[in-house]
Specification:
The protein is an all-alpha fold and 334 residues long. 76% of the residues lie in helices and 0% in strands. The model has no long low-confidence stretch (mean pLDDT 90).
Length: 334
């Protein structure tokens, strides 16, 4: 399109990009058994989630590539400008990879939303760096491991400022929860096998050896919050302009939660009526709690990112306007 001077901002071109991505997604996953049973609506939701993840990876790669050049600058003001440019370019790359539906809310991608994405990238980077360190040099001291993680987090956050151990550990935990979600979505023969796989992944992602099965179970519940939040968000974005999206997305989100937490155990077709009723009540209760936690986590994460963005720009956070913007952001997340 660039070589032919084609306008890439038209609705037609944006739809063509999205259709191309969908075709690639479906053809690449064609041999996956799950694709054969997935209805068209769920494929759209999974596509939306994939595009979000692609956008996040693109931003991360851009930030990594920009970091060394920015840190090499010795002039303080020039260095700050360089990091700002890193963020601007990474944000543009993320938007290009996102491919939202034309006219949807996802097309409006503000600095605070990008700051939230940078945090997610840094969380995943923290966990993956710790896991790589544990595999390559398991005898590293705690200090050495945290320093290795800090170095990589700075790239994702586009900063040369120091990062506290408290923040590193908080990001490590969140990154480990994200990793737990990925691991738990793999098909397992039974719940015990899933728990052991989660336990092993957590040991690497957190840089610890004392992870119990109880810890793994708790992280699975935290990962379910991530799963529900991701599916609900992707569903709302994929169904832009659809009047029935609330009910549709509620069903898609609950189905995803049920599969994630219970797998085959949720299939009670052959169970007696009373047992089936008890299981349905349990799933309904736990799902509602999980959905509320997902909303709270999304709202808090978005507001924190907005505040971090404001601090980097010396914006006064005590004004009525800013406080109302924070509240509106939280409301939108909920």
């Amino acid at each position: 399109a660039i070589s032919k001077n084609i306008d890439m901002n038209t609705e037609t071109f944006k739809n063509e990009k999205r259709d191309l991505a969908k075709e690639a997604f479906e053809s690449t996953n064609a041999i996956d058994d799950e694709m054969y049973t997935m209805d068209a609506e769920m494929k759209e939701i999974v596509l939306e989630e994939m595009l979000k993840e692609t956008s996040k990876r693109e931003a991360g790669q851009q930030l990594d590539a920009c970091y060394d050049g920015a840190t090499a600058i010795t002039n303080g003001a020039a260095k700050k400008t360089a990091f700002t440019n890193c963020k601007t370019n990474a944000k543009a790359a993320a938007m290009a990879a996102r491919m939202p539906k034309h006219g949807s809310a996802a097309e409006t991608f503000g600095d605070s939303q990008f700051a939230s994405m940078m945090n997610d990238v840094a969380k995943e980077k923290a966990a993956s760096t710790m896991a790589a360190t544990m595999r390559a040099q398991p005898n590293m001291s705690e200090r050495e491991k945290l320093d290795a993680v800090k170095k990589e987090m700075k790239k994702s956050l586009a900063t040369d400022d120091d990062i506290s151990d408290t923040k590193i550990k908080a990001f490590l935990k969140e990154g480990a929860i994200m990793k737990t979600r990925d691991v738990a979505k793999t098909t397992y023969t039974d719940a015990n096998e899933k728990r052991k796989s989660v336990q092993a992944a957590m040991k690497e992602s957190l840089g610890k050896t004392d992870i119990t099965e109880t810890d793994a179970e708790m992280f699975l519940k935290d990962a379910a919050v991530e799963e529900v939040g991701a599916i609900m968000s992707a569903c709302v974005d994929s169904k832009y302009g659809v009047a029935t999206k609330t009910a549709d997305c509620e069903k898609a989100s609950k189905d995803a939660y049920t599969t994630f937490m219970y797998g085959q155990d949720a299939d009670l077709a052959g169970a007696d009526a009373e047992k089936k009723k008890r299981k349905e009540r349990e799933i309904d209760y736990e799902y509602k709690r999980t959905k509320n936690k997902a909303a709270q986590k999304r709202a808090l994460g978005d507001v924190k990112a907005k505040m971090e963005d404001a601090i980097s720009k010396n914006i006064d956070m005590n004004t009525e306007t800013f406080k109302n913007e924070k509240r509106d952001l939280a409301k939108e997340a909920f």
